[in-house]
Design goal:
heterodimer, A: about 300 residues, Rossmann fold, Alpha-Beta Plaits, 6-stranded mixed sheet, 10 helices, 13 strands, about 35% helix, B: about 270 residues, mainly alpha, 13 helices, about 70% helix, binds adenosine-5'-diphosphate, binds magnesium ion, nucleotide-binding (chain A), transport (chain A), ABC_transporter-like_ATP-bd (chain A), ATP binding (chain A), ATP hydrolysis activity (chain A)
């Protein structure tokens, strides 16, 4: 039995008497303990609705759902101690109260042993650099600080599963980076299972080995990130900085697609090895620098949506 | 639900959550006292109105001022206690719109407990004190026997439970239409207004309605008739005067059922 077991899960919403919106349309997947799974899709695809069913907030219209062996909507309160949830646009913290009060109340309602609470709090405050903000009312925190507070709040009780719905939305680059680093460390240290929805593919590339793509309520891809990149099929790009300007480079196995001063772009099939091409370029030209660009998964995903 | 250990744990969670809000409010101690004393005085005006009325009449629906005080106080204490402990539920529509309900649903404390304890306002205790004072004054005119004393206690408990059920039951409408708080108010606060007077001032059809359909007559009217040693002006049998706890239990059960249905049909908010 998997940690999360989803079979033909469906949720419809009745809008204006007649019409039914099928927000999640017969989705199936399994998630094993310790996995970090990215869940992506355009706005309105059904990501949040899926998470709300996994957490027991919404009752599914049909299908089979088990999280840690239980039906979430029937055993919602019991399941709550085993999961952590962060909704990016909303805070779980008490708006008018200092962070410290929110955390202390959570300790009580999750019945976290005091020693464990202190240990976790210290660890998260350090990793997330929140120590100075404990006495600041939540409404005075910046978006990035608040998000770090929310993540701490979701993790104080050592959940086995952490659901993150758009955790990086609206964050600046530095905050995003810090958050990704933290989540990686969390997964490495505690084997916390992570399910993360996002618009930002860099989140996925930084964190997730596995990606699920949903569009119009249906799962259109579920597999390894590398597989998704390969499926874009097309090509990878070798960016070469020569010592000085030259005509287009000619090497076997690659095509030069662009020349801009000393910099040139060569594409080659994504499943081919870069090594022979790199050595051919290095042998024939004075090279200052080299880099390889993976296929842009944004393009791949756009193709997936279009392919439906 | 009925497991006493679980109930104790839920009560504990309620206290923990509300204590946080009390502490937060006490950070502005002066303003808390002003609001509380202000609330006490303003709700006091309510009964002063009835008292002034008695300058022109000797009885209201056949009841003396002291008897009216007992009825008014009985309903008022029950209402104010229910309002103090679960009144916040009338804001559930707002909690739904703000996504607060979603947050509460993923915590290991029953949703109802969290909704009722959210932003707990101890200053509502002013209302309890005001009504208790009026009730206390009314009590000094009662011809006490042990069974009447017991019945008075049962009346307050049952009355509180009945208002508790009304608060919860009618707030559930907001699961379907989030902006229906006024509808709920009409029944809860409106119910309290009706039971503040002797029901003998109303036509018998109204009393029938308040007995069989919207049974708030059991909050104070029927048990008070027994405590005050009065015959039922509408000729209902004496045993109705002991029925309040039964009605309370039935209404609370019904309200919890409606609540559970509401939670299972909850749709959250789109994006
Ligand atoms: N409470 C709701 N009532 C009506 N429609 C909803 C509700 N929640 C979501 N939807 C609809 O379901 C679809 C999926 O929404 P959602 O799961 O929020 O998408 P995502 O999180 O991927 O942006 C959208 O069309 C949205 O309008
Ligand atoms: Mg969403």
């Amino acid at each position: 039995m998997s940690l999360i077991e989803v079979r033909d899960l469906r949720r419809t919403f009745r809008v204006r008497r007649r019409d039914d919106v099928v927000a999640v349309h017969d989705v199936s997947f399994d998630i094993e303990p310790g996995e970090m799974v990215g869940y992506i899709g355009p706005n309105g695809a059904g990501k949040s609705t899926t998470i709300k069913m996994l957490t027991g907030i919404l009752v599914p219209t049909s299908g089979h759902l088990r999280v840690a062996g239980v039906d979430p909507s029937k055993r919602r309160t019991a399941l709550a101690s085993r999961i952590g949830v962060v909704f990016g646009q909303r805070t779980t913290l008490w708006w008018d109260l200092p962070l410290r009060d929110s955390f202390e109340l959570l300790q009580k309602i999750y019945r976290i042993p005091p020693a464990r609470y202190r240990q976790n709090l210290d660890r998260f405050l350090e990793l997330l650099d929140l120590g100075d903000l404990l006495d600041t009312p939540v409404r005075q925190l910046s978006l990035g600080q608040r998000m770090r507070g929310d993540i701490t709040a979701a993790l104080l009780h050592d959940p086995e599963i952490l659901y993150l719905d758009e955790p990086t939305i609206g964050l600046d680059v530095v905050s995003k980076g810090r958050l990704r680093e933290f989540l990686r460390a969390l997964n490495a240290e505690r084997a916390t299972t992570l399910l993360l929805t996002t618009h930002d593919l860099q989140d996925i590339e930084a964190l997730c080995d596995r990606v699920m793509v949903i569009d119009h309520g249906s799962l259109v891809f579920d597999g390894a990130l590398t597989q998704l990149q390969a499926r874009g099929g097309s090509s990878r790009t070798l960016v070469v900085d020569l010592v000085d300007e030259r005509p287009a480079i000619e090497v076997p196995g690659a095509v030069t697609v662009r020349v801009d001063g000393p910099r040139q772009w060569l594409t080659f099939p994504a499943d081919a090895s870069a090594a022979p091409i790199v050595s051919a370029v290095a042998a024939g030209y004075d090279v200052a620098d080299l880099s390889i660009q993976e296929p842009d998964i944004e393009d791949v995903i756009r193709e997936l949506y279009a392919g439906r | 639900m009925a497991d006493p250990r679980a109930l104790a744990r839920h009560a504990r969670a309620y206290v923990d959550i509300s204590a946080l809000w009390v502490r937060a409010a006490m950070a502005y101690r002066a303003s808390w006292w002003m609001l509380t004393i202000g609330g006490f005085l303003i709700t006091g005006i309510d009964f002063v109105g009835i008292w002034i009325l008695f300058h022109n009449v000797d009885a209201l629906g056949g009841f003396t001022l002291q008897e009216v005080a007992f009825l008014y106080g009985g309903s008022g204490v029950a209402m104010a206690l229910a309002d103090l402990f679960v009144g916040r539920i009338e804001r559930i529509g707002q909690m739904i719109r703000l996504g607060k309900l979603d947050q509460m649903m993923v915590r290991p404390v029953p949703l109802l407990v969290q909704v009722c304890a959210d932003e707990f306002a101890l200053r509502r205790i002013a209302r309890v004190l005001q009504a208790a004072l009026v009730l206390g004054w009314g009590c000094t005119y009662v011809d006490w026997t042990p069974s009447r004393a017991l019945l008075t206690g049962v009346m307050i408990a049952a009355g509180t439970a009945i208002f508790f059920a009304l608060f919860i039951g009618f707030a559930c409408i907001q699961f379907w239409t989030t902006d229906s708080a006024e509808v709920a108010n009409a029944f809860t606060y409106g119910g309290n207004t009706l039971t503040s007077y002797p029901l003998s001032v109303f036509p018998s059809e109204v009393v029938k309605g308040l007995t069989f359909f919207f049974p708030i007559a059991f909050v104070n009217w029927y048990p008070s008739l027994q405590v005050l040693g009065r015959d039922d002006p509408f000729g209902y049998p004496d045993w109705t005067q002991y029925l309040s706890p039964v009605v309370a239990v039935a209404l609370v059960a019904l309200a919890l059922l409606v609540w559970r249905t509401g939670v299972r049909q909850y749709r959250s908010t789109g994006s």
